[in-house]
Protein 1
Amino acid sequence: MRIGFIGLGHMGGPMAANIIKGGYEVTVFDVHDTATAQLKALGAEVASSPAALAAEVDVVVTMLPGPVQVREVITGTNGVLEAIRSGSTWIDMSTSSPGLGRELAPRFAERGVGQLDAPVSGMAKGAIAGTLQIFVGGEETTYQTARPLLETMGDPARIFLVGPIGAGHTVKLLLNLLWFDHAVAAAEAFIMGSLAGIDIDVLQRALVASPANSHFIEHDINSVFVGDYDESFALRLVCKDLGLAVDMGRDLGVPVEMAALVEQIHRRALRTYGENGGEMLAVKLLEDLTKVSLRRPV
Ligand code: NAD
């Protein structure tokens, strides 16, 4: 079985490497030659376009920045839809728009191609370790067929079918929205605590033991305490995800006032620190404003 993998960045590079380790033959495509060279060294074939890749594989996986690139790679000139084979499957693992997957579904169905959305969480370190959490949208039979492939990239106990096409993207956008809400809320709490004279270690231990605990407060904020804002997930992607979450609220007719505010705070961070800055730089915005540095003494 040959797998085609398109988009070999922070996430896609190690995910494609893990598919090779899992025993599959792999063909890759990326607009950057340096990304494909690393996979070639591991034994992958390199295709000249998404169409050339789709013509020779049983499964096409996309792991692209977002819906703009997914649309281009699938429907553009030399795109996947020009050449994908009947009986094959397209799995979009990018964090993308639920609406785009649903819009493309009839075009894949009429070509006899299966389709799943399967976005992930677990950061670049999870992609390297092959322990990603994967939220799958699509039909049960397509999901069951794809599971062994997904298990080369993710933790088998944390790979879930969450609903029909688009449901995986929906769950992933909700997860990211909540996580970035937590980042902004935690920044406010820790900076106020610090200014009020409470040791950040003591405050963290107290909050972790309280009903206000969260994964962010217990684990993720620790990297901020050593000055690491996690550049493996760029602010341009954070703002894309939060924008898609706000769009979803608009589509569903739900007022998402806090989501919109959290999106704007992250957009401010992007303008301040640059689009490739780390995902937790919204915390630094408040650190810089208040001149409070959330660091543990070394
Ligand atoms: P990235 O920017 O590091 O990688 C994207 C890759 O896609 C790059 O190699 C780029 O050259 C390639 N690309 C862009 N346009 C292309 C095109 N038209 N054709 C072919 N290749 C193209 O991004 P990433 O951090 O690997 O994230 C990928 C996806 O995973 C995003 O949707 C992101 O939101 C999601 N995600 C990222 C993380 C993380 O921690 N980085 C975690 C979970 C999910």
Note: The first helix runs from residue 12 to 21.
Protein 2
Amino acid sequence: MEAIREQNGCWEDVLILAIESSCDETAAAVVKNGREVLSNVIASQIALHTQFGGVVPEIASRKHMEQINQVIEKALWDAGTDLSDITAVAVTYGPGLVGALLVGVAEAKAIAYGAKKPLVGVHHIEGHVAANFITEYPAEHMDDVRCQTEQEALRPPFVCLIVSGGHSHLVIVRDYGEFEIIGRTRDDAAGEAFDKVARAVGLGYPGGPKVDKAARQGNPHAIEFPRAKVAGAPYDFSFSGLKSAVLNYINHAKMTGEEIHVSDLAASFQNAVVEVLVGHTVQAAKEYGYDKVAIAGGVASNTALREAMKKACQENGLCFHYPPPVFCTDNAAMIGAAAYYEYQKGTRHGWDLNAVPNLKLGER
Ligand code: KG4
Ligand code: ZN
């Protein structure tokens, strides 16, 4: 699988132009052989949506329309490539906001058709997992040097915790693009819980990074919040009870005129989430007999989660892999990494590729 495309008897590099537009980031990247990021351009719409307290789907689609061509041009330019060098065009086709996905899918189809290149549709969550396969990236992304120095290239099988704004899954990655889901959330996704708590406590949107920052000044043991267990499903998650406990705490404080220490509340809430995420993941790795653990999705950039998972893995003799933060939140480099392995397996999509807003993990 690690081999590269053979043409006329010689080995050639596989260069993927990847496009991601499933939510509020318009992104394009050029990725070489699934592991080396030659360029990674992200036009974030966060500032635009902040005034509404969350992503407004129609505004997101319109902004993608406005930005996508420039983002792709920059990705090709930064990589020192043009379309003739590209082996295949990859795009996220689900899950996500339908109007947002359609912009990327239509764009990728037009480029692939015009340049006579194969088209590879990628599952967004498969992309998040594949962020862990990236080993080389431009210097501006070396924001977490530990990732470079401590990690060896990750290869399946391994256990992966996928925690984003819309998903919380615990999976066994059997092979590239082959997943066995062993746990999932019964209600809110982990990122959704961060966003809702941030809003309730007045930290605003996007909640995850704001809670993360506030929590650094707080005491994680200041408030005892519940750690929800799902009866009969040891690897499932449930965050709505925790979210309600935080909301009740805030309401009670308001009614009794008590001051809310935002940083203590953020740290205590975050601690409750992190403890469950780490506990489930390490237990799964041990029970299923895997010695490698990875994390993926926007919440995987959370500092407390990274630290706690690192410590727990060390204590349990597990090898822990985690992408630099810029590859945890939405980006196209991860789509290019996933697309490489799909391309090698022979995955090709036709000109009828459409956006699938509720695409399930493992579905094609
Ligand atoms: O993966 P992602 O960028 O988009 C989805 O596919 O959903 O994840 C976004 C989610 C948001 O809920 C955001 O609040 C959360 O990831 N997030 C974080 C952090 N950075 C982003 N949550 C906790 N701590 C962070 N540092
Ligand atoms: Zn995502």
Note: The chain has two domains: 4-132+328-344, 155-323.
Protein 3
Amino acid sequence: MIIFDDKNKTFRLKTRNTEYAMRIVHEKYVVHLYYGGKNHCRGDACKEKIVDFAPYIAEVGESFSLDTIPTELSFFDSGDTKDVAVKIKNANGDATTLFYYKTYRVFEGREELKDLPHSRGGDQTLELIYFDEVSACVLRSYYTIFEECDTIVRYAKFENSGKNTVYIEQASACQLDIAGGDYSLVTLAGDYCCERNIAESPVHVGIQGIYSKRGHSSHRSNPFLALKEKSASENKGEAYAFEFVYSGDFEARVEKSFSGKLRVLMGLNRDTFSWCLESGETFYTPETILTYSAEGMNKLSQNLHDHIRGHIMPPRFAYAERPVVINTWEAMHFNFDESKALQYALRAKSLDMDMIVIDDGWYGNRCNDASGLGDWYVNRKKFTEGLAAFSEKVHAIGLKLGIWIEPEMISPNSDLYKKHPDWVLCSRGRKASFGRKQLVLDLANDEVVDYIVNALKRTLFGVKFEYIKWDFNRCLSEAGSAVLPAERQSETKHRFMLGSYRMHRLLTEAFPDVLFEGCSGGGGRFDAGMLYYCPQIWASDNTDPVCRLPIQKGTLLAYPPSALSAHVTVTRYNKLETSPDLSFRFNVACDGILGYEMDITRLDAGQETQIRDQIVRYKAIQHLLLGGDVYIPSDLQNGEYATLIVAKDKSEFVLLYRNTGAEKRDRLPLCGLKPSAEYEDAAGNRIKGDSLEFSNVCIQNKSDYSFLIFYGKII
Ligand code: GLA
């Protein structure tokens, strides 16, 4: 519910458990009052007082300074000397920016964005309309509430209503000023093969932040940030989260003043973005999802999971059962052909898997990673009768078919590059760097997007397939575009992202019944922007189960289990004889959407039976992964990883427990179950849900690694 109290000029945005409040003061300024638990807003956070050396607005009085008052949006060089949200370079050459509040509008639902991924639905939207007299730009700042998820989505639209061209140099549409408090900053940090590890550090005086300048949201940082009270734990204490619905360069910064005031900003990366806005043009920022929890980090994650499943993922797939796949990559890399793939398909069918995914290597002259990208026609040496005939054979076996693509990239020795060397991203006068022996297509050029989309459509129409794995195997560098004029070169990376989103939209529209899985050299583009098109994303190229545990734990902090693709693998580095057994690998993969990557034609009878049994067990819990609430039990020791998923109605739960540490335990406090209920698993083991915090379940110790899957149902 959004309420405007005309007497106090106060807006209150209420969700199920939270409230966000702001006030118009001196008619032109929007100050931030409160974000937190419902009905706790006191409304005195914006007391004005004279502060020496703070610039003040003379016409209002010495006690009103944008430097000291909490605001909803801050503007460059107009009295707020902290890190600010918005900066416009005016036609007169300076970048002083000051948008005055003019009026507001509240409407049901939200505005649909055509070119950007965004949260679908929404209950109500508050639109605050501002105007900057010098640049003659209108700024519309939006707040859409999602009451059931306890989330608020923020984004902005700029309109140049003047005659002169201006440049948007900073556009962080999400700002949150917090009066004070002792917080820790929680982010997801990593690198290739160790993405999204939870990193926690005290918020200190000064600026801390995360960013990507790699052209994808990246392995190194993830567009997610949380602030948690120092004393908060999994189930107690206050916390805020910010998640950017964007897959390219971003930044999120936290500034703490000496007096303890905090400001959080999230938006496009100011170093790699600037946008030329000509008279009459408009520009939309990507949006940020905000949430608040008074019940610790688990509730924060649950709010985000509900939001992503209910409002980001394509509705057709969000809660739908996902196929258990056999993927060809780890077992065969580029060395497969139709006959090998069919052997795998036959064996996969006998193991009760649902789908075979033909990974990289089926197209063009793709025999290794140096060739073929861009040539999206079937490799007839490998598939002599073509893909349509192959897909018929796969379906005759009783399996579904998945196909790998990497449409944003090009190999320098492809036919496409020979024809269109100017279709790659490259700054003028420079040589483009390589990444995995490949170059990046210039998706700021609509012609390139249309060409690739049509080439893929031509090749895939007529082929029966149910899944696409969409990869993105390098980061961007020398990001210049041959089709943009000099004054628009700094738009290239955002335009590249818009081109990529257009490609995603056109291909998902062309194949509406196909499930798309995202990927970027593992988990380099694991973000809410991608989840808008691809409801699941390959979490990491590191499939060693012990290494996967922290990656998956971090991922689940911000994204639901149904977003996380996890396979039981045997690879060159991760052989069955030398590392954990199949059960442990399976247990770890159960954090997300299960698949297999190994030579299934060489399993012994025992392993075959084990895999069949795993798939039955997985299918019995998949509905919990698709729609349940994730709880991470408190007080886990070093090396212990537990994911507890409880059905929304609390009627059943699954506990995935892994212990790779030295300390063994035999009891684990659970949470989130129904206190009055008794739960039972298939073997008749019982557990009482009676105390939310201290129900205990027996933990078995087995071989090197403790593991357990406990599935219980209310009896
Ligand atoms: C990336 C992916 C892998 C595989 C290869 C194929 O690294 O993460 O799963 O698809 O590309 O080239």
Note: Confidence is low (pLDDT under 50) at residues 701-705.
